[in-house]
């Protein structure tokens, strides 16, 4: 008899070959299969007459093949099958590209259901590459059809059939991790019904009921897991730090700290004196001065006889931190070492020796800080920059280099405070919500592509005055395949170099470049050797280039507001006036309104709130928030109310039964959810 851990290859209709393809999607077991949720739905319930087809709209028609389809090869690698279908209202011309089998599979005189986008006019209706089913069959037409992310070797129909078989096999196996009382109190359906209807809803109400239940369950289990992490952390102990006089640190700074920075430092000092390991997130807008807050924490650690380590996601960022912090800390008698993969063997040996002997009190570096051969004399504070670029495993590996060291994580991704407190349930949160005085406003414009020539001329003018510019290309996923960002960026950069700015140096970076290549280009841009840098969002977290004054974002409507704000923060870091130009031809009113928000405010927190309110496509954490279990169905940008409801239910249950002794199924699912995290709950 099957159980939820049954290998997917044993599901009827799957087999060895399809199982290998499904594995690329992370589907290995029956549980994986039924938990692979649709990314969208097509409502194909309504069948219309041919005459009622509307140009540009997708619809189903039932029509008879009027004559034998014809096959023609118009050039190498391109085959066309054409046929005419009819119903009592009119005729429909259908074309299939590279589907030669349609010539023999579609029988004249037989009726089929065709689903696709209508083309043509009142006199001539046409479809290209429609979905086809025999009359009366209801797999891909005649119902609400789930649309799944795919991989090579797996079609929508294959996945739909596998899902139907999988759901049938586990109908009597599904146990409900939600306690009955929780389910009843919140008006939620049973687990089995939810899985059935999330994949194959009969109508919109069934889909909403199923989704609400699964979102609540996911967020409920997440909230319990985070609470357990916090409880376990609160049970750890370390020697409290003594009060530290930071007046010499403040005096060494060439500027005064903001009230928000001082407040964050105060919260950190309280943590350090508590006798429990700190686990704090410092969240602040681009340019808000999080690094100086971290520097104050490092000074406090060193004054208490401990070492501090700061880990950055790239070598160039690590070097930038080192260049900024080392001179400041040396004024205070604190020695820093830089530890990256680029060091020579001799440099590395020297740095490691100084750390191990305690001669260097602060280490700044990349993942090199957590290498097996790195030993610290007495590590007491771990700082990670750009929280959303590091996983829990990496932070845990660095923390393991010391004995219950304090942890400070920094993020430049502003999110609404209420949401932050929920998401970072295992962290205390400090918010730096004001910018240092003198930070210039970045003028932001939302324009159409009709202005592109003027934009190029503006860039040319800025470069002539000694400045530099970024141009960001958007990436769009098509046909469920990973877009080739290399082609998009290199072609765009080539066009700019050859056709628009032949007299200037145009460089490019993209996510598929080797880290070393990427950093070389960024270093050349930082040094002023490259005038214009074409990139994907890989520069969202990147090196400071104070000389860059122009940020151009192509197809800006394809980005979330928070991401646009992050990109905008790449300029305006120096003394020169800076500009952000958002290019979009999207005429949707809501989209235009979203982009206008960017022109009206530079406050990242207000933008994040607006991103939530408008439920735009913005993802606050890049692809996903690293360090949290991956959310399969919940969307933190629009499920905030349900998130709060689930969190309240989790807190109520944990107050009653902290160890979940009476709820073993709930405890098991929480442990499974966090099983691959650096902090396990076992």
Task: Quickly count the helices.
Answer: 22
Range of helix content: 25-40%
Q: Which structural class matches the secondary elements?
A: alpha/beta
What share of residues are in beta strands? 15-25%
Large-scale geometry: globular
Query: Which second-level CATH architecture of one domain applies?
Result: 3-Layer(aba) Sandwich
How many β-strand runs?
22
Strand arrangement within the widest β-sheet reads 12-13-11-14-15-10-16
Largest sheet: 7 strands, parallel
- What Rg is obtained from the alpha carbons, in whole angstroms? 29 Å
CATH superfamily annotation of one domain: P-loop containing nucleotide triphosphate hydrolases
Mean pLDDT: 85
* The top level CATH class name of one domain: Alpha Beta
CATH topology of one domain: Rossmann fold
Catalogue the unreliable spans.
476-483, 615-627, 678-682
Distance between the termini: 29 Å
3D structure, described in words:
It is a single chain. This protein has 682 residues and is an alpha/beta fold. Among the domains are: 8-40 and 162-203, no CATH class; 46-142, OB fold (Dihydrolipoamide Acetyltransferase, E2P); 443-601, Rossmann fold. The chain is 38% helix and 18% strand. The protein contains 22 helices and 22 strands. The protein has a seven-stranded parallel sheet with strand order 12-13-11-14-15-10-16, sandwiched between helices. The chain has a six-stranded parallel sheet with strand order 17-22-21-18-20-19, sandwiched between helices. Helix 6 packs across helix 7 and helix 18 runs antiparallel to helix 20 (604-614). The longest helix is centred in the N-terminal third of the chain and has 31 residues, at 204-234. The chain is globular and about 90 Å long. The two termini are 29 Å apart. Mean pLDDT is 85; it is low at 476-483, 615-627 and 678-682.
């Amino acid at each position: 008899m099957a159980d939820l851990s049954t290998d997917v290859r044993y599901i009827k209709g799957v087999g060895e070959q399809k199982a290998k393809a499904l594995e690329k999607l992370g589907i290995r077991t029956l549980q994986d299969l039924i938990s692979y949720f649709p990314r969208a739905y097509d409502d194909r319930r309504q069948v219309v007459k041919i005459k009622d087809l509307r140009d540009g709209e997708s619809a189903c028609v039932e029509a008879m093949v009027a004559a034998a389809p014809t096959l023609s090869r118009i050039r190498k690698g391109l085959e066309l099958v054409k046929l005419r279908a009819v119903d009592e209202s009119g005729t429909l011309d259908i074309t299939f590209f590279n589907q030669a089998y349609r010539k023999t599979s579609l029988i004249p005189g037989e009726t089929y259901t065709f689903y696709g986008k209508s083309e043509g006019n009142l006199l001539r209706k046409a479809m290209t590459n429609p979905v086809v089913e025999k009359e009366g069959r209801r797999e891909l037409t005649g119902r609400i059809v789930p649309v799944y992310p795919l991989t090579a070797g797996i079609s929508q129909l294959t996945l739909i059939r596998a899902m139907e078989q999988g759901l049938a096999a586990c109908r009597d196996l599904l146990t409900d991790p939600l306690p009955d009382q929780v389910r009843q109190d919140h008006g939620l359906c049973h687990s089995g019904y939810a899985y059935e209807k999330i994949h194959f809803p009969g109508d919109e109400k069934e889909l909403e009921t199923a989704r609400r239940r699964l979102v609540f369950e996911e967020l409920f289990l997440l909230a319990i897991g985070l609470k357990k992490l916090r409880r376990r952390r609160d049970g750890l102990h370390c020697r409290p730090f003594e009060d530290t006089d930071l007046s010499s640190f403040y005096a060494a700074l060439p500027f005064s700290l903001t009230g928000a920075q001082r407040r964050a430092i105060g919260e950190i000092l309280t943590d350090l004196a508590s006798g429990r390991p700190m686990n704090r997130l410092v969240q602040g807008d681009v340019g808000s001065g999080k690094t100086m807050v971290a520097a104050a924490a490092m000074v406090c650690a060193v004054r208490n006889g401990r070492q501090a380590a700061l880990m950055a996601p790239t070598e160039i960022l690590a070097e930038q931190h080192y260049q900024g912090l080392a001179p400041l800390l040396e004024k205070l008698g604190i020695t820093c070492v830089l530890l990256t993969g680029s060091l020579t063997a001799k440099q590395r040996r020297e740095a490691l020796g100084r750390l191990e002997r305690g001669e260097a009190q602060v280490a700044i570096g990349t993942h090199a800080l957590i290498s097996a051969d790195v030993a610290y004399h007495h590590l007491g504070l771990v700082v990670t920059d750009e929280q959303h670029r590091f996983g829990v495993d990496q932070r845990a590996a660095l923390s393991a280099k010391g004995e219950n060291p304090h942890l400070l994580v920094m993020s430049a991704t502003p999110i609404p405070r209420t949401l932050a407190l929920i998401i970072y349930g295992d962290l205390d949160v400090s918010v730096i919500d004001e910018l240092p005085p003198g930070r210039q406003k970045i003028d932001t414009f939302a324009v159409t592509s009709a202005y592109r020539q003027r934009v190029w001329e503006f860039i040319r003018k800025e470069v002539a005055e000694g400045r530099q510019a970024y141009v960001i290309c958007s990436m769009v996923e098509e046909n469920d395949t990973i877009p080739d960002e290399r082609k998009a960026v290199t072609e765009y950069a080539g066009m700019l170099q050859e056709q628009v700015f032949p007299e200037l140096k145009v460089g490019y970076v993209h996510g598929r470049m080797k880290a070393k290549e990427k950093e070389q280009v960024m270093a050349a841009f930082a040094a002023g050797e490259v005038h214009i840098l074409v990139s994907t969002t890989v520069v969202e977290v990147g090196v400071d280039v104070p000389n860059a004054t122009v940020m151009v974002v192509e197809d800006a409507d394809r980005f979330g507001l928070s991401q646009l704000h992050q990109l905008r923060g790449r300029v305006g870091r120096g003394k020169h006036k800076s500009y952000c130009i958002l290019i979009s031809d999207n005429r949707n009113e809501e989209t235009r309104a979203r982009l206008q928000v960017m022109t009206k405010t530079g406050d990242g927190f207000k933008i994040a709130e607006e991103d939530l309110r408008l439920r735009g496509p913005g993802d606050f954490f890049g692809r996903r928030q690293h360090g949290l279990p991956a959310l399969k169905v919940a969307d933190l940008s629009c499920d905030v109310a349900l998130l709060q409801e689930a969190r309240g239910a989790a807190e109520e249950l944990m107050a009653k039964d902290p160890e979940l002794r009476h709820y073993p199924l709930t405890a098991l699912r929480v442990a499974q959810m966090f099983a691959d995290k650096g902090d396990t709950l076992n």
